[in-house]
Amino acid sequence: MAANDQNDDGHDTGNLPDLGDAIDILTFSQILEMDDSEDDREFSKSIVFGFFEQAEETFEKMDTALEARNLDELYRLGHFLKGSSATLGLTKVKDSCEKIQRYGKKENLDGSPEKDEALCLSRITETLKTVKAEYADVEQTLKNFFNST
Amino acid sequence: MPEGDIAAVAQGAGNNSSDFVRKLYKMLEDPAYSEVVRWGNEGDSFVVLENEKFTKTILPKHFKHSNFASFVRQLNKYDFHKVRHNEENGQSPYGASAWEFKHPEFRADRKDNLDNIRRKAPAPRKAQAAEEQFGVSNQQVLVLSETLAATQQQVQQLQESYHEIVNANKIFVDEILHLQKLVRAQNQVHNELINHLNKAEQERKDARNPGHSAGYTSNTSNLLSDGSESPLELRRARDILNSLQVDHVADRDLNRMSVQLHQVGGSPESAGSSGMMGPPGVGGVNPFLHDPLNDMRHLVYPVGQTVGIDPFAAEHINNLPYNRPVQENAMGPGHEFNGPSMHSQTPPGAASQNGSPWGSKKPVVLLVEDDRTCSRIGSKFLAQYDCGVEIARDGLEAVNKVNAKQHYYDLIFMDIIMPQLDGVSATAMIREVQPNTPIIAMTSNINQQDLETYFHWGMRDVLAKPFTKEGMIGKLRKHLANFLRNPPQESMMDSMYPNGAQGQPPTPGPYSNQGMGMAPLSAASSGAVGKFDTTPIQSPATSASWHSPGQMPHASPTMAQDQGYLGAGSGSQMVLTPGGTQKPQYANTMIPQMGVPPPQRIPDGMQRSDGPPEKRQRLYAPQGNYNQ
């Protein structure tokens, strides 16, 4: 949906591509600015596609950790993916990762401790579904964006 | 039975009279001795008139010795008694120096009666002797029983000391084992990392040849130089492994523990109330050990064996002043941390050049980040700002890189939570060799406690994650001001920012006194001081925590003492359980001093241009401040 704007993006914040509310465009545009050429978007594309790999790997690990009921690992993985998704401005994915991180740390969303591990795990299960869907969404958006470049 | 009887029987042979009595009678029959010894006037006693002559001339003749005392003893044995004259009968009729002896049966006219004069029965005689000895030893008994009591007390003291020592030993052993475990784990980690590095180097070399894209060139060129250095790095890494001064640290740890254990075991209230950190002059430092010992010294005067306890106590007292520094050292990830000795920046490069924000020398930045996406973006930002960039994937790689190329990196951006070795531990280690290089934490975990930890362990500043280009470059300009061609040009900086209108000027000036850095920093340092003061008071609790050294996350016993050290308390902690290092209050205690809403915690705080840059500008530690 954002593809039609891509030719206008650039250093002017007023002309950023519209990538939807799942992506923070100010953040993402910083990556785009790093491209030497707006025609091939070599850098940002490699970053974004690198992130795709990373995210998919991480989701797999999260699934495994969830099966193993390994909250520590889930915390770590949530933190990890939160960092990269935040750097790209993938707001929704980042927020969900933060939730996973928090649940993995046996906390409620407000940061208060949650002793019920089963509850944490089930929350992570739900959030993981959500984040995967959110990820699929932005992945599609970004792929469209870069493929149409 | 006694030999006397046997002798009497042997010699008596028919009559019971004693040889001695006969000799005595025979001697008195001789009138030649009348001037010296003779029968008394009544004939019922005999008198030694001239003691000296008698001893020298008569005794040898008749009794084959010349010992008057012996003669008197012999008389006593036969129940002769000396006649005393000085009481009612006045002066002796034979002169003051005369010895008159008398036996009821011994008379001049009764030679036949001699047989009735016998030695006194041996038993009474012996009993009497024993009685005499008792008389003498009653005093000794008193002394002995006193000594015994003292000794018993001493033994009791020794037993108590012994039990304390046994306890201490147990803890020592636990601690040593635990430390060894830690060291082994770390060694393993290191080895893993070296292997990983080897592999990574190989991969990079491989990757470099196919030649990536234009966007990757800056990375690649850095990796190139990196690659050529790698064997050296790895060698250095192994050197570090080999030179780990594990025993050293453990020893001092144990030493400290023993001191505190005794303080605690001795008397908790005294440990709490007395100023342990005061001058080691010590009067009341350890009443438990000390005062009883003084008492003991009085009690044990016959024995005087307080030795072995006294030096013992003194030793511990002497240890007190060294206690705290050891503690601090022990907390470092295996090495000493010399953060306080940090100095100012690297020398300025003043020459002018066009086309680059930097002067004659471009800064080289080490970006330590385990997340590929972040590290690539970050290095891209930096490269575009004309910096040399190298990347380390975790704390250990960073440490190795810094060790391999000392003074090569001008600034380090350091992620906190990373595999193998966390950023705080890595910083502490890097500080050993590079006390001055600015190290900037990159983290989304910004709460007071974490910040204190970061600053305490030698980080200069914090860059909030997700970082932005302007945030990163702001830090660069602030900490590498000496590298800048025109240090104070804010207008130029603003033009660098796409969101310049909203972004805060990155120069340190306006904010250097109000920012985060100040508060956590001073808090951290005062925390450290306060800790030293208060630790003895807390020591019961502290030692209690030593009794459970099983959990790896609480690796160092010092962990329990001050939460301010939490993150860096042990490198392995963050490595093993990243979550363990974080405070539960995480979101609620967001940096009150910041005066800025914490963007990371606000659901929609992703507006990079609003929240984070502003916060970032405030998040530095004034450098001069740290030097104090």
TrEMBL record, chain A:
Keyword Phosphoprotein on entry: yes
Gene3D superfamilies: HPT domain (1.20.120.160)
Molecular function in Gene Ontology: histidine phosphotransfer kinase activity; protein histidine kinase binding
Cellular compartments per GO CC: cytoplasm; nucleus
Phosphohistidine carried by residues: H79
Keywords: Phosphoprotein
BP terms from Gene Ontology: phosphorelay signal transduction system
Pfam families, per database record: Hpt
Keyword NAD: no
Sequence ranges assigned to domain HPt in this UniProt record: 40-145
Protein name: HPt domain-containing protein
Species whose genome carries this gene: Daldinia eschscholtzii
From TrEMBL, chain B:
Biased amino acid composition, Polar residues: 215-228, 341-357, 535-548, 571-591
One record GO biological process: regulation of transcription by RNA polymerase II
Main localization (coarse): nucleus
SMART domains: HSF, REC
InterPro entries registered for this protein in UniProt: CheY-like_superfamily, HSF_DNA-bd, Sig_transdc_resp-reg_receiver, Sig_transdc_resp-reg_Skn7, WH-like_DNA-bd_sf, WH_DNA-bd_sf
Function in brief: Transcription factor that is part of a SLN1-YPD1-SKN7 two-component regulatory system, which controls gene expression in response to changes in the osmolarity of the extracellular environment. Under low osmotic conditions, phosphorylated and activated by the phosphorelay intermediate protein YPD1. Also activated in response to oxidative stress, independent on the two-component regulatory system. Regulates heat shock genes in response to oxidative stress and genes involved in cell wall integrity in response to osmotic changes.
Quaternary state and interactors: Homotrimer.
Name of protein: Transcription factor
Organism: Daldinia eschscholtzii
